[in-house]
């Protein structure tokens, strides 16, 4: 298995190229290392290589790594979050990438002792296997979140279809960007919505060209 430092240097090069193609600044793109399939030692290696953001998609996985790494990284919860598990992770995470229902918003708001940066998960592709709001329900949902003082809507998140068809991927990412710009343009205090969490190991270069500010990279960075 290649060391994380090597992988990171290669990925940073790819990010720089994608930013050059789309006239963007690489400093505006944040890498979230997805460590759900790797050991805590491998996650620590990512931190030593210079990664600041670690993403976990299960509460148990996050808690077991947090026991060792504590608050060295900024923790991102990137998977489907069950309301009953919010209390276990809420004081450990900086970002939640998967807010998609009011029952979850209520629980986050109740349990949090500080503002939690939330991405609203949107099911842009319309696949039944994926979680998230329908695009047309996004604006109304975000308006309702104004009632929850511990939630800040920093942006939108989606998972693109698993495909090599570049046009399908671009269409998905563009649709999310367009929705983000719509919310951003509303000027809501509780929902600045400047960020886009989209793109994974297989499609992050395309996501960056289409405006991603957070890319969630697992296998290409830390391995399986």
From TrEMBL:
GO molecular function terms attached to this record: pyridoxal phosphate binding
Q: Which residues carry this modification: N6-(pyridoxal phosphate)lysine?
A: 36
Q: Please, which domain of life does this record's source organism belong to?
A: Bacteria
Q: Does the keyword Protein biosynthesis apply?
A: no
Essential cofactor(s) = pyridoxal 5'-phosphate
Ranges where the Alanine racemase N-terminal domain occurs: 26-223
Question: Could you tell me which InterPro entries the record lists for this protein?
Answer: Ala_racemase_N (IPR001608), PLP-binding_barrel (IPR029066), PyrdxlP_homeostasis (IPR011078)
| Annotated keywords | Pyridoxal phosphate
Family designation = Belongs to the pyridoxal phosphate-binding protein YggS/PROSC family.
Q: What does this protein do?
A: Pyridoxal 5'-phosphate (PLP)-binding protein, which is involved in PLP homeostasis.
Q: Which HAMAP family match?
A: PLP_homeostasis
Q: Kindly provide the name given to this protein in its UniProt entry.
A: Pyridoxal phosphate homeostasis protein
Traced from the root, the source organism's taxonomic lineage reads:
Bacteria, Bacillati, Bacillota, Bacilli, Bacillales
């Amino acid at each position: 298995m290649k060391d994380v430092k090597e992988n990171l240097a290669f990925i940073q090069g790819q990010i720089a190229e994608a930013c050059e193609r789309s006239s963007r600044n690489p400093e505006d793109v944040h890498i979230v290392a997805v460590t759900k399939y790797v050991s805590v030692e491998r996650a620590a290696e990512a931190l030593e290589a210079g990664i600041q953001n670690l993403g976990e998609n299960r509460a148990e996985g996050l808690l077991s790594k947090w026991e060792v790494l504590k608050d060295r990284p900024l923790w991102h919860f990137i998977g489907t979050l069950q309301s009953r598990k919010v209390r276990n992770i809420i004081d450990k995470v900086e970002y939640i990438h998967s807010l998609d229902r009011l029952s979850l918003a209520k629980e986050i708001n109740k349990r949090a002792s500080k503002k939690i940066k939330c991405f609203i998960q949107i099911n842009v592709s319309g696949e039944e296997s994926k979680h998230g709001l329908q695009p047309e329900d996004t604006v109304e949902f975000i308006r309702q979140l104004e009632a929850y003082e511990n939630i800040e809507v920093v942006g939108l998140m989606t998972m693109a279809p698993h495909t090599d068809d570049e046009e399908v991927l671009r269409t998905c990412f563009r649709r999310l960007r367009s929705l983000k710009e719509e919310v951003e343009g509303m000027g809501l205090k509780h929902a600045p919505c400047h960020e886009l969490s989209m793109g994974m190991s297989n499609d992050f270069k395309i996501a960056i060209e289409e405006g991603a500010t957070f890319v969630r990279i697992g296998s290409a960075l830390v391995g399986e």
